[in-house]
Amino acid sequence: MSSRFAPRPTRTTVRGGETATPRSAARTTGIRRTWTPQAPVDLALTLGPLRRGPADPTFRTTPDGAIWRATRTPAGPATLRVALRRSTAEAEAEAWGAGADWLLDRLPHLLGATDTPEHFAPRHRLVAHTWRRRHGLRLTRTGLVMESLIPSVLEQKVTADEAYRAWRLLVRGFGEPAPGPTPAQARMHVMPDPRTWSLIPSWEWHRAGVDNKRASTILRAVRVAARLEEAATMDPPAARARLEVIPGIGPWTSAETVQRSNGAPDEVTVGDLHLPGIVGYALDGDRTADDARMLELLAPYEGQRHRAARLILLSGQVPPRRKPRMPRTDIGLL
Known about the structure:
The chain is of the alpha+beta class. It has a domain at about 10-110: TATA-Binding Protein, CATH 3.30.310. The protein contains 15 helices and nine strands. The protein has helices spanning about 45, 100-105, 105-110, 125-135, 145-155, 160-175, 195-200, 200-205, 210-225, 225-230, 235-245, 250-260, 275-285, 290-300, 305-315, and strands at about 10-15, 20, 30-35, 60, 65-75, 75-85, 90-95, 175, 190. Strand 6 (about 75-85) and strand 7 (about 90-95) form a beta hairpin. Helix 11 (about 235-245) packs across helix 12. The N and C termini lie far apart (about 50 Å). One of its GO terms (molecular function) is DNA-3-methyladenine glycosylase activity. Keywords: DNA damage, DNA repair.
């Protein structure tokens, strides 16, 4: 790593062939862990769904192939840097902040150790071809609900660019600087804690382009954040049910959240504007497919339908665009 980063503590060998620094090490210098996946892992494919747009202040990639995350754990804010050593396929991670231990303890889950790709059997030529090309895809399991739930709510019924802008402005404006030596000029931030979310003035939501419906949904969620975080330890259907108790959180939002927090291979997203047409076109040439038709086409992948949908999206086999993109929303008119 570049010399612009603070010195690191000396490594200490631990069981399982892993290495780590002592847990008493100063958080300003970070603690480290290495872990060897049992199968190849593509970091960009595996952790990419955690990124909310190219300027996400909680997520960065660097030219050396490393991925950086700033997040809020149950133990407090933390920053994680993870990279793969090509010569040995080891994952090397370093973390800073109060939640550093928490993040490193769960590094294998983040990189797909609990994923079950061996249960996946391609049923279509396109899916089989993409599976061979993208064999490093693993479904991440963050164990964190709110960090995926809040941006998913922001993405309801608006364009991706609008949602990414809202997330960026709110996290930078009300979050806190990420601990540790983050990449130069990255300006990484940890998202606000539940109380801070609840205190954001109405005009700041408006400034970020967030209408009252989405803002109110987030405010209802952060009031019971501890209960919602418990969903990360539940079976995916039970986790989704827990989330959907909150008015404003429906099947689309709960699926988008649980896919990331729980590493759920079968929780396919319904209610999406584009996904049914993409799946229909890729598997049956039907660009007009609705949710019912999409689920019918994905039925052979029961238990792994989310993975199948991810592979279809990664294939690039999308229908030619015939209708205009979703219009931008002017919340001043709402």
